[in-house]
Amino acid sequence: xxxxCWRRGPPVGGVGVGGVLWRLSxxxxxxxxxxxxxxxxxxxxxxxxxxxxxxxxALTLLVSxxxxxxxxxxxxxLSHLHSAACLVxxxxxxxxxxxxxQKNILHEEEGREFLGLVIITVWMSLCRSSAKKxxxxxxxxxxxxxxxxPFIMWLYIxxxxxxxxxxxxxxxxVL
Length: 175
Prior knowledge:
Elements: H1 2-5, H2 17-38, H3 46-65, H4 73-100, H5 109-129, H6 137-159, H7 161-165, H8 169-172
Helix pairs in contact: 2-3, 2-6, 3-4, 3-5, 4-5
């Protein structure tokens, strides 16, 4: 539209430091989400979790390649629907955790699933907000933190032998 062509300010996902950091954060998160989808092969319900991680991986990869795509009606519709489903799943898992959790939520499979859905929901919200302008300040810092935190958590879980002992059998063959 004409208003997009005449918009002032740097282009969305531009070549400035904020645009580069945003695109790198998107690439990192797309990689994490794709890896999370790939390791679901041993899960009792791999299709559910594969789609839960795979769809946002694809949407995020698109944003990393061409940030204005987040303003596309199809991209936004898929993002909104998926985020709504993740919110419902988060609520169900959150209730289950409050009712039944025995340990730290990272030690509970439902806790890791809950955190995964929360990360997806927050990330997709950041992607949608980047459609109009390059993220900067607090939203960009949140994006960088969010794109690095899953890898840090995976490293923590991998080196923590006590945590690996509490894993269900289908998780022990993934790494």
